[in-house]
UniProtKB/TrEMBL annotation:
GO terms for molecular function: ATP binding. Keywords: ATP-binding, Cell membrane, Membrane, Nucleotide-binding, Translocase, Transport. PANTHER family: SPERMIDINE/PUTRESCINE IMPORT ATP-BINDING PROTEIN POTA, SPERMIDINE_PUTRESCINE IMPORT ATP-BINDING PROTEIN POTA. It catalyses: ATP + H2O + polyamine-[polyamine-binding protein]Side 1 = ADP + phosphate + polyamineSide 2 + [polyamine-binding protein]Side 1. This is Spermidine/putrescine import ATP-binding protein PotA. The complex is composed of two ATP-binding proteins (PotA), two transmembrane proteins (PotB and PotC) and a solute-binding protein (PotD). Pfam families: ABC_tran, TOBE_2. Its EC number is 7.6.2.11. Part of the ABC transporter complex PotABCD involved in spermidine/putrescine import. Responsible for energy coupling to the transport system. Gene3D superfamilies: 2.40.50.100, P-loop containing nucleotide triphosphate hydrolases (3.40.50.300). Residues 11-242 form the ABC transporter domain.
Length: 366
């Protein structure tokens, strides 16, 4: 393994494991290296170990094995309040008996910053989240979205280099969540801070992050920029978890010229890119995105393998058409087409032929 302490990484997890009960590992061999200024999201189902990783980084939990480093230094030797880490949680955690200004001033007092400098920093932090008019209010006099803005301002007020956020928008409604997603990413980039953000919401992860670490079962399943995660999932879990996806099971018949020919269990032969398969006879799940399925034969290669499909449902969604098909033994194969003037609207009961470019269909682990 490369010497990770000298590569300029700002946050590093090296072979980190965590067990709460001395028996079961909830984090298994975690390796992660983040440069300064990166916005990285840990995305995964509930119980996959995201919060545990954040707590270890913050210093509220210790790793059972491995090393966590901040700016090249092992954090085991730095007490939590000296790590210069700002934190934002889902449940705001503002002090209810203090005003907004007092809540923001508190982390500065702890750091023994003088009164006039405190006032200046509080004002600036409130400005960042557009809450200057609310300095005198108490948390109970604020809406959920406003409280979360204040929690964000409080995490930023002492100008930390690293900010950790654990599902900070989870309790908010959709519209407010989207507004704040945008504000948080802008603010993070403007201030040049490094962010580790935790969510189970894949849209949030894709839209906000420089890179996303997809967690499952205490492991990072894939760590990549959003477009790479969506377009080149490395395994079936990631393909299913990120975005909408069609899955068909089958057996590899042959691999030739970089294309796998797959015999589907439900009948039919298709072309796929061999990602997690290497030889004939292997079981596989092939994964194809709904928007990459083609039913206009003139747009397919002349020798492309196609499948017979029956249209079960056509849903007009305004910008796109979403059509459900019966294909190779499954009733929930989805295709999405853009609502363009020349786009055909399929009709339930219609028989069609579908296909795709081999590179758009990935043969993954079974
Ligand atoms: N303080 C704790 N004591 C014992 N088990 C815990 C504790 N915190 C979390 N766990 C367990 O560790 C696993 C991972 O939890 P967590 O890191 O909170 O996952 P996530 O944030 O991805 O939902 C879960 O099985 C959870 O029940
Ligand atoms: Mg959690």
């Amino acid at each position: 393994m490369a010497n990770t302490t000298t590569n300029g990484a700002f946050v590093e997890f090296e072979r980190v494991q965590k067990s709460y009960d001395g028996e079961n590992l909830v984090v298994k061999d975690l390796n992660l290296s983040m440069p300064k200024g990166e916005f990285l999201t840990m995305l995964g189902p509930s119980g996959s170990g995201k919060t545990t990783c954040l707590m270890m980084l913050a210093g509220f939990e210790t790793a059972t094995h491995g090393d966590i480093r901040l700016d090249g230094k092992s954090i085991n030797n730095i007490p939590p309040h000296k790590r210069g880490i700002g934190m934002v949680f889902q449940n705001y955690a503002l002090f209810p008996h203090m005003t907004v200004a007092e809540n923001l001033s508190f982390p500065l007092e702890v750091r023994r910053i003088g009164k006039s400098e405190r006032e200046e920093k509080v004002k600036r932090a409130l400005g960042m989240v557009q809450m200057n008019d609310f300095a005198g209010r108490r948390p109970t006099q604020l809406s959920g979205g406003q409280q979360q803005r204040i929690a964000l301002a409080r995490a930023l007020v002492f100008e930390p280099e690293l900010v950790l956020m654990d599902e900070p928008l989870g309790a908010l409604d959709k519209q407010l969540r989207e507004t704040l997603q945008f504000e948080i990413t802008n603010l993070a980039h403007e201030l040049g801070i490094t962010v580790v953000y935790v969510t189970h919401d894949q849209t949030e992860a894709l839209t906000m992050s420089d890179r996303v670490a997809v967690f499952d079962d205490g492991r990072i399943q894939q760590l990549a920029p959003p477009d790479e995660l969506y377009e080149a999932p490395q395994n079936s879990f990631v393909a299913q978890f990120i975005g909408e996806n069609n899955t068909l099971e089958g057996t590899v018949k042959e691999i030739k010229n970089g294309v796998a020919l797959v015999q589907l269990d439900g009948g039919g032969l298709i072309d796929a890119m061999p990602v997690n398969v290497s030889e004939a006879g292997e079981r596989t799940r092939v994964s194809i995105r709904p928007e990459r399925v083609e039913f206009n034969k003139s747009r397919l290669h002349a020798d492309a393998h196609t499948l017979q499909a029956e249209v079960l449902e056509f849903i007009y969604m305004g910008d796109i058409f979403r059509t459900r098909l019966r294909v190779a033994g499954t009733d929930d194969f989805i295709i999405k087409t853009r609502n363009a003037p020349d786009q055909k609207r399929l009709v339930p009961g219609e028989q069609i032929e579908i296909g795709w470019l081999p590179e758009d269909c990935r043969a993954l682990d079974a």
